[in-house]
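Lab meeting, item 3. Inverse folding demo.
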């Protein structure tokens, strides 16, 4: 039987599971949410955790081979989601009257012929072992690039005039390889890199981008678990095998985009008569200046290049208001994960049940209940499952640059990513919502749903800049993710924190992120209901949501609204 026929049969089967396995648990009675329309209340009470379960079970099955970007399993996931959208009667909002928005990409796989070595001015060449000591990709999308360049330590590699911070100090780093720290200067002052909260300057993506803009041929990030907020295994697993990139668009790229273990950085420092701990301390000062090491990087980057197209999956529920229906509220979730690692022994399928079959399950359930509403909202609703999040938010980056309607007409993006099926939550995390004019509505609805708003439990990890809503924020669209906090019914905060820490340590970006029948999707359903209410309200407001004055995304919002972009 052809794949698409199999897919349709499975889709039709799963779409009926919820009807047979009802487990609805409304957060409150309709009367308690009187400020929402009766139509909205009736609709969100139809959210069914068992339908979410069914989607998660299918999307994280071995059949889908880890939903790798540009791989068969990822394509099956996209077709499954599009088929669900069609079943719910949603309008295609992709390319040429389809649900698919083609995203031109290039897959790059480092080849065994790649060499990567540090060459000190005095002493022998130190060949580094891939995956164990370093990971590296050639962003130029060439089959071979050779680098033999001086390594320059640039601290955090940040140039942020609004914080009076410049690690480069005008140094000419063209043709150099830059060694730098992840994260950003530590501070408790919220006016200085937002205090403990990580800004985009601390993200590895910014550091590569800035190094390329400066003309460097390479950038090497030093991994330290507490600074990166995840262990080396996450770096290794996220940077092994084929890695995807958007097709080149003229922006500068690096021949070497790498991470190294802390022990390797210590060796580099020692080869130059320096101490890595002192180097890290020095980088905390505004007075820091780039330091040339007496070490070169000699690398031959040999890559297999595979041009391909992946897809964002986009559907629309048209609004009923004649004046507002050309504006929209958007829901997003990424459907990709890490695929299969053929070189691994044992279980080598990265199923991605939590990350992010859960978000997709919620997205599909939202599409379902919105389609059942007796009356549609005033503004249109966009449902978008994006590709290549695990490759660096690539699908949502393309979506932000090529939105189905102008970014200036998108009221809000609500994103779902990695929602643990642990039971009924008593908290919600909506980090970034406080930066928007929509926050009073978020607060009011959280109170109605008896959900305490939990501040970002790990602001130093920079989660706001690590999920797809960030790509939409960069083009000005008010955007944030919805997730559970740490307090669940019947448990204390310590229990929830323990579950999160254990998942990060043992299952995040590991083959063990799998579906289990004992998973409790009560919380995922609660987050779907809450998100439905938020989206309905944003779709009903007389004016579009904006960013608070002075926010880093305010200028992009004003530009998009003024230019109709």
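The presenter then showed the designed sequence:
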């Amino acid at each position: 039987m052809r794949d698409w026929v199999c897919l349709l049969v499975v889709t039709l089967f799963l779409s009926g599971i919820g009807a047979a396995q009802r487990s609805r648990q409304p957060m409150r009675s309709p009367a308690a949410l009187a400020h929402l329309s009766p139509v909205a209340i009736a609709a969100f009470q139809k959210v069914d955790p068992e339908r979410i379960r069914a989607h998660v079970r299918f999307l994280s099955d071995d059949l889908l081979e880890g939903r790798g970007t540009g791989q068969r399993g990822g394509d099956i996931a996209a077709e499954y989601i599009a088929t669900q959208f069609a079943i719910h009667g949603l309008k295609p909002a992709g390319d040429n009257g389809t649900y698919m928005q083609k995203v031109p990409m290039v897959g790059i796989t480092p080849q065994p012929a790649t060499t990567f070595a540090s060459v000190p001015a005095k002493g022998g060449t130190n060949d580094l072992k891939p995956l164990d000591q370093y990971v590296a990709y050639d962003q130029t999308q060439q089959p071979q690039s050779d680098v033999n360049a001086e390594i320059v330590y640039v601290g955090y590699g940040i140039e942020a005039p609004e914080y009076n911070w410049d690690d480069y100090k005008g140094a000419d780093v063209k043709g150099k390889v830059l060694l730098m720290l992840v994260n950003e200067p530590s501070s408790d002052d919220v006016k200085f890199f937002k205090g403990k909260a990580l800004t985009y300057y601390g993200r590895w993506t910014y550091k590569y981008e800035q190094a390329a803009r400066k003309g460097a041929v390479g950038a090497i990030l030093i991994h330290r678990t507490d600074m990166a907020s995840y262990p080396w295994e996450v770096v290794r697993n996220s940077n092994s095998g084929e890695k995807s990139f958007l097709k080149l668009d003229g922006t500068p790229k690096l021949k070497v985009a790498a991470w190294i273990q802390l022990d390797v950085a210590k060796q580099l420092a020692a080869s130059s008569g320096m101490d890595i701990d002192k180097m890290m301390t020095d980088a905390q000062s505004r007075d820091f200046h780039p330091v040339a090491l007496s070490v070169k990087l000699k690398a031959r980057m040999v890559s297999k290049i595979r041009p391909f197209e992946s897809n964002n999956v986009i559907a629309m529920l048209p609004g009923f208001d004649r004046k507002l229906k050309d504006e929209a509220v958007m829901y997003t979730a990424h459907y990709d994960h890490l695929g299969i690692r053929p070189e691994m022994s044992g279980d080598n399928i990265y199923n991605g049940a939590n990350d992010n079959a859960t978000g997709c399950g919620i997205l599909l359930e939202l599409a379902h209940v919105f389609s059942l509403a007796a009356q549609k909202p005033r503004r249109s609703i966009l449902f978008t499952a994006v590709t290549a999040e695990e490759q660096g938010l690539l699908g949502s980056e393309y979506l932000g640059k090529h939105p189905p309607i102008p970014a200036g007409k998108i009221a809000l993006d609500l994103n779902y990513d990695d929602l643990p099926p642990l039971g009924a939550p008593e908290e919600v995390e909506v980090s970034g919502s406080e930066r928007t004019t929509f926050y009073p509505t978020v607060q009011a609805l959280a109170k109605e749903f008896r959900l305490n708003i939990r501040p970002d439990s790990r602001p130093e990890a920079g989660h706001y800049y690590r999920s797809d809503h960030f790509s939409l924020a960069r083009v000005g669209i008010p955007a944030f993710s919805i997730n559970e906090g740490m307090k669940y019914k019947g448990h204390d905060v310590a229990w929830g924190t323990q579950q999160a820490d254990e998942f990060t340590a043992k299952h995040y970006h590991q083959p063990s992120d799998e579906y289990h029948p004992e998973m409790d999707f009560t919380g995922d359903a609660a987050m779907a209901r809450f998100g439905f209410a938020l989206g309905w309200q944003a779709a009903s407001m007389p004016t579009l949501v904006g960013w608070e004055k002075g926010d880093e995304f305010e200028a992009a919002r004003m530009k998009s609204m003024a230019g109709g972009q």
